[in-house]
Amino acid sequence: MATIYTIDGDIITDGLQGRAQCDEALQLAQRIAAERDEAVELHDDGSAWRVEPDGSTSEAGYLVEGRGESGRWSREYVEAGGSAAFATLEAAEAAIDDLIDTCGFERHNLRARAL
Fold this sequence. Notes:
Mean pLDDT: 75
Shape: elongated
Order of helices and strands: EEHEEEEEEHE
Radius of gyration: 15 Å
Largest sheet: 5 strands, antiparallel
Structural class: alpha+beta
């Protein structure tokens, strides 16, 4: 399954066929990026892609984020403040598990998103 996000991490659309099945998600992400004239993120079957308005794509890194008291996603959840970037989704998920174990965060308040 695939999801298309804004660069800020808001969901544009969800539940699309993943790229392993067909190019539906990529084609839609390219169309949305062109219509909005801004890049979007395509999360697809464990990988993430940045899709530019010109239709080009690049594999994205991942940023671990947490939701604060305001209910909005924030990069400022890390104890010292700031964000935590990782090269792979697996590394980002491991960081989330660590935050759950060591800092007491709840999984529904944490996510990894493509850079």
